[in-house]
Amino acid sequence: YIMKFKIGDRVRILPSSKYWKTGDSNNPQNITGTVDKIVSGICVMWDNNRHNTYSSKDLEIVSEEALYEIY
Predict the structure, then answer these.
(1) Distance from CA of residue 71 to its chain's centroid?
(2) What is the CA radius of gyration of the chain?
(3) Is 22 helix (H, G, I), strand (E, B) or coil?
(4) For residue 9, with 0-12 CB atoms within 10 Å meaning exposed, 13-18 middle and 19 or more buried, which class applies?
(5) pTM for the complete prediction?
């Protein structure tokens, strides 16, 4: 199994995600965020300074320019 997301990826919430419908600042619909940690979920720091954790089915990659890679 290859992880689709990596630290540094720029992501957005998919419209099909249950979090899209909440529309609150912790689950921003039209704001890009950066994957900053991957544990039991994918942790995202949104550009509005909010932070939340998602599964891979909730996010789409906007840019794969990683800030750094872990080996």
Answers:
(1) 21
(2) 11
(3) helix
(4) buried
(5) 0.81
